[in-house]
């Protein structure tokens, strides 16, 4: 089978397509034939610069290694002790630095769940990582509820698009920041109001917010404290919350980490099958080396609206 591997970090040319043996499952493992995978920030950043300095030792990859997190596919083989899956099941889930591969070997205990076989596996390949981060920031840590006012920064990206939909499914009033070109898209996602961060100052347009979800940088986070009502919350996924500032203002701040339990993933799939959550696919790329390189270049160019998905042959 074909698999992308790294022997060093750097530009897109460090990615190499190699031939490796098809994995064989141990007693408690499954093998999944990959249908689609999402292109995500960790893929691009780790490929370019290596593991994050703050990454826990137990998950920090060492060279040589592959890339990728979220995936969709079909179970093709199971170990003798596996009871949660059957051959032929359609599944989605997470396998850190391991999905740029035609087949994926997973423990039965991995964060993977079955999905109805009538669902298109292509968009589902880009669901997990974005929705896990959005779920953590909006629902688990953010505790978005019906009737609340929620401000989401970076609402048009892969994570932001999920955060808007999750906040709306919880019954919140959603204010979304992005570019003017992204305004219609953010409204399609369910945003009640949109703010063009390039020409408008959200601190002059928004106040008494119950929750701010920061999916952008530290400056936006620093400016956000002042718009949150006392007793409100702020979550951030890529800039560390100033706990002294939140304490001074009487608000709760959390640095949200994108993980989900199997049960939470099942809840998300329920929302997806009900049409309350969608994966907007920006562009698809075949699982071929030059196309994967282009996917990384396109992702790095910024202005991402929706997900970039790498698609495998049937």
From TrEMBL:
Keyword RNA-binding found: yes
PROSITE patterns for the chain: QOR_ZETA_CRYSTAL (PS01162)
Highest taxon in the source lineage: Bacteria
Pfam families: ADH_N (PF08240), ADH_zinc_N_2 (PF13602)
SMART domains: PKS_ER (SM00829)
Domain Enoyl reductase (ER): 10-310
Molecular function GO labels: oxidoreductase activity; RNA binding; zinc ion binding
Cell compartment(s), UniProt: Cytoplasm
Keyword annotations from UniProtKB, A to Z: Cytoplasm, NADP, RNA-binding
Assigned GO CC terms: cytoplasm
Binding partners and assembly: Homotetramer.
Protein name: Oxidoreductase
């Amino acid at each position: 089978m074909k698999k992308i591997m790294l022997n060093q970090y750097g530009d897109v040319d460090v990615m190499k397509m190699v031939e490796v043996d098809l994995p064989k499952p141990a007693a408690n493992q499954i093998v999944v034939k990959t249908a689609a995978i999402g292109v995500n920030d960790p893929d691009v950043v780790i490929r370019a610069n290596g593991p994050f300095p703050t990454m826990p030792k137990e998950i920090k990859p060492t060279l040589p290694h592959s890339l990728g997190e979220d995936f969709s596919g079909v179970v093709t083989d199971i170990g003798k002790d596996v009871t949660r899956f059957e051959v032929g099941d359609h599944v989605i889930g997470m396998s850190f630095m391991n999905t740029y591969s035609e087949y994926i070997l997973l423990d039965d205990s991995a964060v993977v769940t079955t999905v109805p076989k009538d669902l298109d596996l292509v968009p589902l390949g880009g669901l997990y990582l974005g929705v896990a981060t959005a779920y953590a920031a909006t629902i688990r840590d953010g505790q978005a509820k019906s009737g609340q006012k929620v401000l989401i920064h970076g609402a048009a990206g892969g994570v932001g698009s999920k955060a808007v939909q999750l906040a709306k499914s919880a019954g919140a009033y959603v204010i979304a920041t992005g570019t003017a070109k992204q305004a219609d898209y953010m409204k399609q996602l369910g945003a009640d109001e949109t703010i063009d961060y390039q020409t408008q100052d959200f601190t002059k347009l928004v106040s008494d917010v119950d929750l701010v979800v920061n999916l952008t940088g530290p400056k936006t986070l620093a400016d956000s404290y002042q718009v949150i009502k006392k007793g409100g919350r702020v979550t951030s996924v890529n800039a560390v919350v100033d706990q002294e500032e939140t304490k001074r203002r009487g608000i709760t701040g959390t640095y949200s980490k994108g993980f989900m339990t199997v049960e939470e993933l099942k809840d998300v799939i329920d929302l997806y099958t009900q049409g309350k959550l969608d994966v907007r696919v920006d562009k698809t790329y075949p699982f071929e080396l030059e196309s994967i390189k282009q996917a990384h270049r396109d992702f790095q160019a910024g202005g991402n609206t929706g997900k970039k998905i790498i698609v495998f042959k049937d």
